[in-house]
Specification:
CATH topology of the largest domain: Immunoglobulin-like
Strand order of the largest sheet: 2-8-7-5
Number of helices: 2
Largest sheet: 4 strands, mixed
CATH superfamily of the largest domain: Immunoglobulins
Helix content: under 10%
Number of strands: 29
Low-confidence stretches: 1-26
Oligomer: single chain
Number of domains: 4
CATH class of the largest domain: Mainly Beta
């Protein structure tokens, strides 16, 4: 009965409004009643890891048949959102809409859980009559950035033979947060071992295990899948002993060599050791060299000593491996990479500094006869020139070469950063100081570049 009366009242209010508008257009009867119109916002594209924000704030009271009709906007709109469809495999429902966990908010949001198309509907009604407009739909297309998953085989492990050794790939990840599939394998094992990948326990989980059947180093590899594509390979070593601790190889530190490094380089494996103090046998090998290089392992002076020498021939990376043997077990391999720079791009020229200009004042005796003056030469003298201010920006060793433009000068030592310059006697003129200038050149050079600077020596010679 109450529901019937309420509907009758709404009908009567609507009829009165219509009659009033038609009977007297000049009479101001106030805003008309219009049902609310739903506006769920524009369609959206989103990534799987994105939070999707919905917005129904554009919903309002409008008359679809008469856009110019002034409608009553004072009533409050009640919002109801609902999922009309979701991709197969999705677990989202109306409870996934979040704004205080409510599907009745103006602007709720939700987190998509699978890739695909989500259709969300918005229904609105006013707070008094309950009259609702036609539902409006918004389509959200969710895609994946499809980044490769990343395998992480964890830290290297060690233990004794015939004991279970645990591996840990739990740090593996997927950029989109997809659930991972794991695949472990034994890629290499000591010659004494019969283990194969099938001998690993739980090799399709994040935490497999294995039992070594003999002493040595085993290499295990892990790849993971996000259900679409596989990651690259990550590896870890499992070192097993039979009670005797394995020796430790140390091939030295990887480094970039100075541009003017010697052509022959010495490797350094002296950091290797055996925990029980047993004497070691060394075994070096060349893992890689630049493609243009002719260097091979045969170019190592001795692969069985701690410090073999080798000659590099072109710029690039040379990677060496060292293993040591204590009489019972071989160590895990250790590698070192030496990088030699291209002298055409990696070497800076040295800077020459021949020192400060210098001068000396000399006098010569003069005599006169019939008003004609005759003067002796100013005596010979020596200058010391100093090129110690020269330097190389790369810290390379530099060589010094001194030379004089005037062939009458004597350079005591053409090499070295200091030298003496012998200047022979210079002609004097009575009552006049004559300046005699001599230019001394200093060239400094590293292995491929050079620079030259000049210092001027001046002898002021006056006859008296």
């Amino acid at each position: 009965m109450l529901k019937t009366s309420r509907n009758a009242m709404i009908f009567a209010l609507g009829a009165l409004s219509l009659l009033s508008a038609c009977s007297d257009k000049e009479e101001d009867t106030g805003p008309a009643y219009c049902p609310p119109a739903a506006d769920a916002g524009g369609d959206q594209d989103a990534l799987l890891q994105d939070l999707v924000n919905l917005d129904g704030s554009a919903s309002s009271f409008l008359d679809a048949d008469d856009p110019d009709l002034v409608c009553n906007q004072e009533l409050e709109i009640v919002y109801t959102w609902s999922f009309q469809s979701a991709p197969i495999g999705s677990a989202v429902d109306d409870g996934a809409l979040s704004d205080n966990n409510s599907a009745t908010a103006v602007a709720p949001s939700f987190q998509p859980d699978v890739v695909g198309t989500y259709v969300v509907g918005l229904s609105v009604e006013d707070e008094i009559s309950g009259v609702s407009a036609q539902q409006d739909l918004v389509i959200i297309t969710v895609t994946s950035s499809d980044g490769l998953p990343v395998a992480d085989a964890g830290d290297d492990q060690s233990g004794e033979i015939q004991t279970r050794i645990e591996l840990d790939g739990s740090a593996s990840s997927d950029p989109e947060g997809a659930e991972l599939e794991f695949s472990w394998a034994i890629s290499s094992a000591p010659d004494c071992s019969d283990l194969e990948s099938d001998d690993m326990f739980n090799s399709n989980t994040a935490s497999p295990s294995m039992i070594c059947d003999c002493a040595g180093t085993y290499l295990v590899e892990l790849v993971v899948s996000d259900g679409v594509q596989w990651s690259g390979v990550d590896s870890a070593t499992v070192t097993c002993t039979d009670g005797d601790q394995l020796p430790v190889a140390d091939a030295g530190d990887s480094r970039t060599m100075e541009p003017c490094s010697d052509a022959v380089i010495t490797l350094d494996g002296f950091g290797s050791y055996d925990p029980e103090g047993e004497p070691l046998t060394y075994q070096w090998s060349l893992l890689s060299a630049p493609s243009e290089s002719l260097t091979t392992v045969a170019d190592l002076s001795d692969t069985t000593v701690a410090n073999p020498e080798f000659a590099w021939d072109v710029a690039g990376d040379y990677t060496f491996q060292l293993q040591v043997y204590d009489g019972n077990d071989w160590s895990a391999p250790d590698v070192v990479t030496l990088t030699f720079v291209d002298l055409t791009t990696g070497n800076n020229a040295p800077v020459s500094n021949a020192g400060e200009d210098a001068s000396v004042d000399l006098e010569a005796d003069c005599t006169t006869s019939s008003y004609v003056w005759t003067c002796d030469d100013c005596e010979a003298t020596e200058f010391q020139v100093d090129g110690s201010g020269s330097y190389d920006p790369d810290g390379d060793d530099i060589g010094y070469t001194w030379s004089a433009d005037d062939y009458t000068l004597t350079v005591q030592s053409e090499a070295g950063f200091k030298t003496d310059i012998y200047v022979p006697g210079t002609a004097a003129t009575y009552g006049t100081s004559t300046a005699w200038d001599f230019d001394i050149n200093l060239e400094v050079a590293d292995c491929s570049e050079s620079d030259t600077d000049t210092v001027r020596l001046t002898v002021n010679c006056e006859g008296i």
